[in-house]
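Appendix B, example 12.
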Amino acid sequence: MSEALTPSMAGPGLLDRARIVAGPRFNRWLVPPAALAIHLCIGMAYGFSVFWLPMSKLLEGPGATCTGAGVGTLMFSSSCNWSVPLVTSTFEMFIAVLGLAAALWGGWLEHAGPRKAGFIAALCWGGGMVVGGIGVQMHQLWLLWLGCGIIGGVGQGLGYITPVSTLIKWFPDRRGMATGMAIMGYGGGAMIGAPIAVALMKHYGGGSAPAGVAATLITMGILYVIVMSLGAFGMRVPPSGWKPEGWTEPASAKAMVTSRHVHLDVAWKTPQFWLIWGVLFLNVTAGIGVISMASPMLQDVFGGHLIGLDSVTTLSTAQKAAIAASAAGLVGLISLFNSLGRFFWASISDHIGRKMTYMLFFIIGIVMYISLPTLGHLGMAGAFVVAICVILSMYGGGFSTVPAYLADIFGTQMVGAIHGRLLTAWSAAGIVGPYLIAHLRQAQINAGVAHNLVYDRTLYTLSALLLAGLVLNMMVRPVHEKHHMDEERLARERALQHEKHGGEHAHTSARGSFGALGVVSWLAIGIPFLIGVFIALQKAAALF
């Protein structure tokens, strides 16, 4: 993915943005695999659930269960096993830090460039996993939280937004498709990473997963540093004024697509920013609700019907295991549709517009959520699973469509930084969604509602959230021209981003052939992704 692209390499440092302005031999189709290399690694965030149970069984013996010990004690104790809720807090931490890091350093990223930001993301995400692995080895919960939760969360935030503005500038003709390709990797990262983690835990633990957790985290952390660094060094930025060959910006711009630019400091104060923030927050909250309860919901609603039993009976241990295996297949399908939905819906948005795409998310989503209780009551497990897959495709599609939505509304100059601020909606939804779902479910159980009916009110509540999101999306309008940057401020911003470097050759830049490098780059990314898809389909086969 590397190529000498600038006339002189003596001045700027190896990681500087000025160093990576594309020259004439570069091809823009080398940027998506570089972006995918980063997103497929940080997408392992969705696969961390494979670690939770083994992490709760690291110590053996009756004394390892420290009943009544507080969080403060367990954080520093090396003789007490950790509970599953304690270790799952790691996920909540790095999702929360993801949004905060993206918001704090999004503006810096625009000036520093994708190579420097991507390389730091690699060190933080991979290095954080290494620190977390050392924490598991020493049995220090605070070190696990610091490594995977805090340091890893910074890597998540920087790694997530690093390719966004770059891809949008490389593909002004297909913004949605471009960002959809990269962000698809985040949804599919677990399909590749989770099976690798399971295999490594068995290998290092001699068949015992708990014994292999530490070594697995360290190994995968080192692997991710290498792969993400390759992606970061493969990133290039177009010179100022660059356009795809043969493409001209449409003369009659769409009402919802601006050709001007809004500065980060102004964008986040506009009503449009907060309306889109609310749209993403509500879409993600509802989607996380389904993700967090999909497998237990399928088991509770259908029970023995999943393995062909016609009536509810007392189930044997073997039957319960078969039901759990069948429901686990849903997790594989969720990963697949979460990933592919990101590319599908973002690409569709290039043709029908971002606002209309979100309208479809909310309208179809409301229908799906309302229909799930009825499908459950009728025992239609197949239709129930299809509805969940559609919901999860739109959950993923919401993430991949929103960067292009922001570029349409605020322009492309600082879209990466604006996207970083917007991702605080994800952090908030990652806390609110699971909390809301867990408490609604428990309230139903406490009220004596049968287990196969406890999700009805929850699903109706989620559909109400989508209705609120639909209203917010309908309120989005173009930004008033008073918020646009004038030519002087735009020139200053472009100077900070070194866009003038190579700008005099914009009409001849990035006209190179795809070549052997392109083939190797796409195969290096495509083959692991397709293997992950195959594994996900294998798991899903248990449903049928």
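Residues 156 and 407 are 22 Å apart (CA to CA). Residues 1-10 have pLDDT under 50 and may be disordered.
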